[in-house]
Amino acid sequence: MHTVAVLSLKGGVGKTTVALGIASAALRRGARTLVGDLDPQGNATASLDPPLTDATLAEVLETPRLAVLDQAIAPSAWSDRLDVLVGSEELELLNEPGPDSKRMDNLARALDELRGSPRGEPYEIAILDCPPSLGRLTRSALIAADSALLVTEPTMYAVAGAERALEAIEAIRAEHNPRLRPVGVLVNRLRVRSYEHQYRIAELRESFGRLVMPTAIPDRLAVQQAQGACTPIHEWHSPGAQEIALTFNMVLAKILRSSRAGRHRLADDEPDEHPGTGGAGEVGEAETTSEFPAIREFAEREIG
What's the rounded Cα separation, in Å, for the pair 73 and 160? Predict the structure, then answer.
């Protein structure tokens, strides 16, 4: 089971949209998928519309045992091949700031329990939708994950936010989880004809090189329409939805290539990456000009 943490540093950038888009792409490939909703807002849980459960992820983080997991996991309305590790507002009580907590590795323990005693057919991918902060919930997800995907918007604050997030990923990797790898920085809600958006993407690529994914998620109404209907984007039939679905296919392929877990049947027919909707040019350079030496070394190591 490959576990990916989807994170951002601010709300409203479409982080949950990306997590659900990746889940939709995994379903399209026939993968058994688990979505863990760590965001106290519970938007992923609402969109996947599982039945009521006797426990939630809050209880799992308190008691990471298989019996509690069984009570907190439910099938989604999307498919019997996609389950939800149900979120709740009570998660906010576990998200107070500070790196020290006895609960920090409980999510990793819970997912290890799930790997050791799968509920029927094993999950091939687990997607952790993190809250929009670097609090304990996000750090718990990074400790449990094989890879991390940072979601941002093409705004003037994107570079600073990406630098802080990548610093956190590097710290977790060094101190807690050496297998953790950054998938990259994914730009969401791109308006291709916006000069400001193109400028901000170029700024991100100047700072992070190939860590910025060569595809971006375009700003399309189809995303809100599909989520409102509790439907995977791959099953929403409109030109805008088809464009976004193809982009999520490529994001999933990149995630699976980021570790050995990507070398299974899901990656057999992965599409070649191309600039797609990114619109800011090819990403042929490996260098980064970040003013933070740690980030510069981190990026060069990951793309070298």
Answer: 36
Per the CB < 8 A criterion, the answer to whether 42 and 48 are in contact is: no
Q: What is the mean pLDDT of the chain?
A: 81
The crossing angle, in degrees rounded to 10, of helices 106-116 and 136-144 is 40
DSSP assignment, residue 270? P
CB 86 within 8 A of CB 53: yes
More confident residue, 212 or 103: 212
Locate tokens 């981190």: which residue?
298
Our count of domains for the chain comes to 1
Pull the structure tokens for residue 198: 């193109």
Side-chain-side CA neighbours of residue 154 (13 Å): 28
Query: Per-residue pLDDT tens for 152-176?
Result: 888 888 778 888 888 899 999 999 9
Q: How far apart are CA 163 and CA 86, in angstroms?
A: 30
- Say how many residues make up the chain: 304
For residue 223, the enclosing domain spans 2-303
Element (H, E) at 9: none
As to burial, measured by CB atoms within 10 angstroms (0-12 exposed, 13-18 middle, 19+ buried), residue 243 is middle
Q: How confident is the model at residue 204 (pLDDT cuts 50, 70, 90)?
A: confident
What is the CATH number for 239? Answer: 3.40.50.300
Q: Number of C-alpha atoms within 13 angstroms, CB side, residue 224?
A: 5
The region, left, alpha or beta by phi > 0 then psi within -120 to 50, assigned to residue 261 is alpha
Q: How much is the pLDDT for 60?
A: 93
The strand pair at 82-85 and 73-75 is best described as: antiparallel
Instruction: State residue 140's pLDDT score.
Output: 93
The percent helix, strand, coil of the chain (3-state, each to 5) is: 45, 15, 40
